[in-house]
Amino acid sequence: MNLILFLIAFIFPLFAVQRDAAIGSYVTVPPDAPTVIIDAGHGGTDLGARGRTPYCEEKRVCLQTARLVKKYLNQLGYHVVMTRNSDAFISLSRRVEIADQASGALFVSLHFNSSRNPTAQGIEVFFYENKEDRSRTSASRKLADAVLGRLVRRTAAVSRGTKKGNFYVIRETTMPAILVEGGFISNPSERTNLKSREYQEKIARGVADGIDAFMKKNKF
Question: What is the model's pTM?
Answer without folding.
Answer: 0.87
